[in-house]
Specification:
about 170 residues, alpha+beta, about 30% helix
Amino acid sequence: MKKRSLTMVLLSVLGTFCVVSYAGDVKVNWQNPEKYTDIRPTNETRADFQARVFKELDQVFTDMAKKLPDHTQWNVTVTDLDLAGDVNPLYFRGGHEIRIVKDLYWPRMNLSYTLTDEQGKVLASGTEEIKDMGFLMRSTIPSGNTAFQFEEQMLWDWFKKQQRDKVFPSR
């Protein structure tokens, strides 16, 4: 009897570690980044900065996709990006240009998307110009997930609105 109880306990413990978690999947295409409004680096090469921006914002999209229903595919094409702030060649610190963040340099992103279910049925699609003109008036705490906190917050606000308005389904 004790052996059977121990086996049941072990199976239930092992079962908690073997839970499979599904969520939506996302593919982000950064289309013609050389034509983006503002993706200028300050103290790194243009290529390194661009790769870092894309990697960190890809992760934001991946985190959002986790909030979508299982087995959905979200395809996003970013056609323009304007980071918060502005790099002005007249302002230097330590031999490098600096990004000046003021309320008139708000973050903005243009994108198109298609969200499909596992059979390929389109659940949602659209073209958006996402912007956050009040980005400095918020009392947000940076997530620590990205150096681009204003863009991250802007994307999350847009995504939550899409779910609230039932454009994107929720898990």
